[in-house]
Each structure stands twice: as structure tokens, then as C-alpha cells.
Write a structure and sequence with these properties.
Length: about 475
């Protein structure tokens, strides 16, 4: 139903986010065991998990039941949204990449775009780590944490850290390259292995340009229509985005609180400061100077993707929205975005790389280890590789950090110290990851003449058939 006052989606998401943080903090600081006890629940964790026997050892009041219901509902909305996004991620890559690659029509164009994409991705990642290392070396966050605090964290989180360390395996370059080629494309789709899906779709797209036109036409038209269908699905899923963002954030903040942040405040500030520098100083060099986009045009267009990346901490799950923002709101042609963004969501993790650089220096400082220039260069190299190997899902950046630490002999138990704040930093670095992908996409598109002018975007959005699926064309709100 159309109403007179419609708020643009990114504002709604932002409101959800801020409210989520406020409510989460309130729960974290004011809600404790006594609150549950006063509602007739003696053993809150068993009650919440559903293992307490009601009537025998619990006498929950109506309010306790209602609270539990709201909690379940909250998690349900968050999970529903994340499932929706995951549901879309694989099909949108397949459909749009096949159409995108087949529309390029000649292999030289494809390899040119591919070369630029990978080249710029590598450069931005190396810049990100260097920014992180620079900040960490100047501020020296490790010097702000006492030995007792460090040892306390190691005692508290040591076991969890060991579990993460056990998961990390250094990627072998040959295997990594070979693994891009799926043994069975359907298996790759079922497993959601993005790099393999990208490869298979690209191959089909290229093959379509090599067969008879009239035969290819049928297939391309089918996938083109399917792309429109899946974009509609994105639109439907996005309807619950503001509520879901609230739900996801409340859960996280209620659990984490800010106490732990305080003891590692300087470290967190260095990571966040580095990420902000990337987003608001380094990336504008790309999208302003190389792609000719203004600050407001770029950020207004991609803010829904940034906010969703923040709340989901997953660049893969955010991919459909990033594509939507780049294509519909920035006016980047699908032939470029369908190629650049899925690859970016899989291999380009500037925020993760920056975080890994800072974390390595921070842990080294905690243990009084001096890192030589050679060590720092090794960190740049391994963090670039580690970030490429990081899957776009929550928390993997920290697992890959193990490889960076090992490369220069920094004690792995240091991971226990930063584990408690990882989720918050994961949210921040994922936002940076997604922004970096969109920036590179804009640069590549501009170099190919595949980006609309603001007027063209406005005209397209004002046509009823082509209304902006993200926020019904209300770009200026
Ligand atoms: N969560 C990050 C992403 O999806 C990866 C990481 O750094 O853990 O982009």
C-alpha cells in the first residue's frame, strides 16, 4: 500500500541498527540472573535452552513466557533473513554471470575485465594491510594492555582459541587454483562454493558465445528472465531487512556488551580507524578520481549493502544486495557487476586483511616481540593470501589470522586475547570488504564505459517498469 511518507530503505535499516544497539546494550547491562529469578525462573540458562522442567524446579510467570517468546521471535526473524539472503546468493551469481559473460561476446574483453579486476583487488588489499600496519606501528595498541589483562583473556578464552587454531590450514597455492575448478558443478552449487560457481557460470557464459547464435539466444533469454525473477526475490527478502537488522544486532550486543571492548579499546580503535580510512579516504581515490563518482552518489547507492554487511558479518550473504545496489542504484552494467562482485565477495577482503595486519602487530606487542621490516613485509604477503582464502562468512578472518601469525612466529595463544571483540570487528571489516568490492566494480565499469550518468539512473528509476527494487527509486531521501 502506498503511503505519502516513505522512508528510503537505508534509513530504515539504519534505524533498525541503532535501535538494536540501544536495546542490546540495555539488555546487556540491566538484565541478569536476578531479573529471571524475579520472574520465577531459577535456572535461566536451562530455561532458555528448554531443558528445565517446568513445575518441578521452575515456576515461570507469564512475563517469563512472554520474554522467551519474544526472544525466539527475534532470533527467528534474524535467521529467516539470513536464510533468505543465502537462498539468493548462489542463483543470482549463476544467472547474472552467465548472462554477463555471454553478453561480452569476445574473449579479449572478458580477459581484459578479468585482469583489471584481479589486479585492482590485489592492490587494494595490499594498501589495506599497509594502512593497518602503519596505524598499529604508530599507536602501538599492545602497550595499552597490561600483562594481567592479557593473561586473564588467555585463561578465559584459551580453549575457544585453540579450537579456532585447529581449524586453520595454510592454503597450498596449487591446490587453491585447482580447487577453483569444480569436479562436479552441481555439487559446487549444492555446497555453495562461490569460487567454483563463478568459474562454472563463466565457462557456460563463454561457451554460449561460441555456439550458434539462435541456439544461444534461447538459453541467454532464459537466464536473463531468471535474473529478473531473482532480483524480485531480493526485493521481497529486503522487505524485512530493517527488522532483521534489529534482531541480529540485539542478539549480538546483548551477549557481548561493551565491557570487553573497553579493555581492548585502543586495539579496536586502531582497527576501526584503519577501516574508516580505507572507506572514506582510500576508496574515494578510486571511485572519485578513477570512476568520477561523487561521495554522496557512491555512498547513498551502496549504503544498504554496507549496513547489511555490518549486521550479517558476511560478504557472501550480502552479495545479492551489493549487486542490486551497484546495478540499480549506481547504474553499473550487469556485464561488469555480475563478474566483478561475485569474485570480490569471494577473494577481495580488504577489511579482513587490514584487521589481520593490526591483530598480528598487536599480539606481537602484547608478547614483547619486535617485528622487523622483513617480518612486516611477510605479514603483508601472508595477510593478502590469507584474506583471499577467507570465505565471506562470519568469523573466518580470525581463523585465517593463524596463518599470518605463524608466518612470523607470533604466539598463537594471543588469539584468545582478541577473541571476545572479534564479532564486532568482524561486522566492521565486512562492511569495508563490501565497500571495497563496490568501489572496484565502479572503477572497472567506468574504464569500460559501463556506468550510467546520474541523469540516466534517475530516468531509469522514474520509469514505472524499472522502479528501483531497493527503495522504489527514492534516491534522494
Ligand atoms: N566476515 C568477513 C566477510 O564475510 C570475513 C572475515 O573477515 O571473517 O567478509
Amino acid at each position: 500500500m502506498a503511503s505519502n511518507f516513505k522512508l528510503a530503505l537505508h534509513w530504515k535499516i539504519l534505524i533498525g541498527l541503532v535501535l538494536g544497539i540501544v536495546v542490546g546494550l540495555a539488555i546487556n547491562t540491566m538484565w541478569d540472573t536476578n531479573t529471571w529469578n524475579s520472574m520465577g525462573v531459577d535456572n535461566p540458562s536451562a530455561w532458555v535452552e528448554g531443558t528445565a522442567i517446568e513445575g518441578v524446579n521452575e515456576h515461570p510467570s507469564f512475563i517469563a513466557h512472554a520474554t522467551l517468546f519474544i526472544r525466539h521471535l527475534n532470533s527467528f526473524i534474524g535467521d529467516l533473513f539470513m536464510r533468505g539472503l543465502r537462498f539468493i546468493a548462489v542463483p543470482i551469481v549463476i544467472f547474472s554471470l552467465i548472462v554477463g559473460a555471454s553478453s561480452l561476446n569476445d574473449l579479449s574483453k572478458l580477459s581484459r575485465i578479468g585482469g583489471k579486476t584481479i589486479g585492482i583487488y590485489l592492490v587494494t588489499t595490499a594498501v589495506a594491510i599497509s594502512v593497518g600496519l602503519l596505524f598499529a606501528n604508530i599507536v602501538k595498541p599492545g602497550n595499552f594492555v597490561s600483562e594481567e589483562t592479557r593473561d586473564g583473556f588467555v585463561a578465559q578464552f584459551g580453549d575457544q582459541a585453540s579450537a579456532k587454531i585447529a581449524k586453520a590450514t595454510a592454503p597450498d597455492v596449487w591446490d587453491t587454483v585447482l580447487n577453483i575448478i569444480p569436479k562436479n558443478p552441481f555439487n559446487a552449487i549444492a555446497q555453495g562454493n562461490m569460487l567454483q560457481v563463478v568459474f562454472a557460470s563463466l565457462l557456460v557464459g563463454i561457451a554460449l558465445t561460441l555456439i550458434k547464435r539462435e541456439k544461444a539466444k534461447v538459453v541467454i533469454e532464459f537466464f536473463d528472465a531468471m535474473t529478473d525473477v531473482i532480483i524480485k526475490v531480493v526485493e521481497i527478502v529486503l522487505m524485512i531487512a530493517p527488522y532483521a537488522v534489529f534482531a541480529l544486532i540485539v542478539d549480538q550486543i546483548a551477549e557481548l556488551g561493551l565491557d570487553i571492548l573497553a579493555s581492548l579499546a585502543v586495539y579496536c580503535m586502531v582497527v576501526v580507524g584503519g577501516l574508516l580510512t580505507m572507506m572514506f579516504v582510500v576508496y574515494p581515490i578510486g571511485f572519485k578520481l578513477l570512476a568520477g563518482l561523487s561521495y554522496s552518489r557512491f555512498f547513498k547507492a551502496i549504503s544498504p549493502a554496507q549496513l547489511l554487511a555490518f549486521s550479517s558479518a558476511s560478504s557472501s550473504a550480502t552479495l545479492p544486495v551489493t549487486m542490486e545496489c551497484c546495478e540499480q542504484r549506481l547504474g553499473i552494467k550487469e556485464e561488469v557487476s555480475a563478474f566483478v562482485l561475485p569474485i570480490g565477495a569471494t577473494i577481495n577482503m580488504d577489511g579482513t586483511a587490514l584487521y589481520q595486519g593490526v591483530a598480528a602487530v598487536f599480539i606481537a606487542q602484547l608478547y614483547g616481540i619486535d617485528l622487523s621490516v622483513m617480518d612486516q613485509l611477510t605479514i603483508v604477503l601472508t595477510a593478502t593470501l590469507a584474506s583471499i582464502g577467507t570465505a565471506g562468512v562470519p568469523g573466518v578472518g580470525m581463523i585465517m589470522l593463524v596463518i599470518v601469525l605463524e608466518s612470523v612466529g607470533i604466539p598463537l595463544e594471543g588469539i584468545a586475547v582478541i577473541l571476545g571483540v572479534d564479532r564486532i570487528l568482524d561486522m566492521c571489516r565486512t562492511s569495508c570488504n563490501v565497500t571495497g568490492d563496490a568501489m572496484v566494480c565502479a572503477v572497472v565499469a567506468a574504464s569500460e564505459g559501463a556506468i550510467e550518468t546520474p541523469e540516466q539512473v534517475a530516468t531509469r528509476l522514474s520509469r514505472p517498469m524499472d522502479e528501483d527494487p531497493v527503495d522504489q527509486g527514492r534516491l534522494d531521501e
